[in-house]
Bifunctional protein FolD
Amino acid sequence: MLASIINGKEVAQKVRAELSEEVEKLKQENVVPGLAVILVGNDPASLSYIKGKQKASEETGIHFTLNHLSESATQQELLEKIDYYNEHESFHGILVQLPLPKHIEEKAVIERISPLKDVDGFHPLNTGKMLAGEDTYLSCTPAGIMKLLSSQGISPEGKHAVVVGRSNIVGKPVGQLLLDQHATVTYCHSRTKNLSEYTRQADILIAAAGKAHLIKGIDIKPGAVVIDVGVNRMDNGKLTGDVDFEEAKQVAGYITPVPGGVGPMTIAMLAYNTVKAAKQFLSEKTSR
């Protein structure tokens, strides 16, 4: 029996529809959620991601603006642009598109964004709040993964979740969110020996290593939930995940496709965080 395909596009559409209603309520209070995106250089993948973010923002009713700086822009120029949006009350969320050119220090940029406007959920203060289980902006891809699970009625409680990948953006935070929902979590990575021994134990398998077809059908526990975060471009130009989809769907109980799985959810959760930031701004404004 083939796995049930978790359609990220459909779930993301529902999230955006719910957010549109929230935006209409905010507009009645004279608050239009605003998202400022800053891009340095002309990375084709970054340009593609930004188009998706702009489309989702506009569909939701979020005011979107793009600041496109040249590849040669200095770190100071970028920091000054962030400072401008930190102070600008019409913009509730700030996102600096990664990766950055090598002459710009990513850490300094992330830490310059106000934690109140950090809709990517990367600022150390927001990361710390997430670890402490406090309300904060969750990193968009992990938050999207959790929304995908809940959309299928899948509870992590009591299940063994295996996360392949340990990035600060996906692997580490999604493991923490699963732990918060009472899963038993195992982290694997590029130095893990006998990887398949761990993946075959997973009730929920999160593949976020960035290596095409790392996970084969034989590496999956029958009936497992497989969430494929990988986005790898093949020689023929097609995108594929970290999981061998054709093999895996013969074994898994649920699986996300690439493209059309986690990707749309990442963008939807960015819109979610932006609307959340606008609501917090309104709350603070009315309490002054």
Observations:
- The two ends are 59 Å apart (CA to CA).
- The chain has two domains: 30-114, 140-262.
- The chain has a mean pLDDT of 96.
